């Protein structure tokens, strides 16, 4: 991953897949966390030291993913972190997994900013400014009914 980049590229291995050779659904969340924390770190914020760096910490309060296309062992994927929403005390990041130009999986995590006692706290300006450097989605995405 580049020094301040919000994207990650990788090839699927057998360890990422279930017995049928399809990426195991929970594996996507590990990649989402890696892309997010690596991006924060590359921009001067260590996940475990957010309280000291920002006066509070962002905690994940909701997450999900839509699996749009089957992904198999040896496929090459790109993961782009995108900004979905910034509120006063929370924000939502999107995680777009593409194979070539095709969106194959779309994840999201809602983060709430909390003080040292885990009470609601406004987002610090430094974090808001950093979040606003994230790209917008390049894909038209609408959640499909089950």
Question: What can you see in these coordinates?
Answer:
This protein has 146 residues and is an alpha+beta fold. It is built from three helices and five strands. It has helices at 27-42, 50-54, 125-131; strands at residues 7-11, 57-67, 76-86, 90-99, 102-114. Strands 1-3-4-5-2 form a five-stranded antiparallel β-sheet. It is elongated and about 45 Å long. The model has no long low-confidence stretch (mean pLDDT 91).
Brief synopsis:
Helix content is 19%, strand content 34%. It is built from three helices and five strands, in the order E-H-H-E-E-E-E-H.
Topology:
Elements: E1 7-11, H1 27-42, H2 50-54, E2 57-67, E3 76-86, E4 90-99, E5 102-114, H3 125-131
Antiparallel strand pairs: 1-3, 2-5, 3-4, 4-5
Question: What brief labels describe this structure?
Answer:
alpha+beta, 146 residues, 19% helix, 5 strands
Q: What is the rounded distance between the termini?
A: 34 Å
- What is the 3D shape? elongated
Query: What is the structural class?
Result: alpha+beta
In percent, how much strand structure appears in the residues?
A: 25-35%
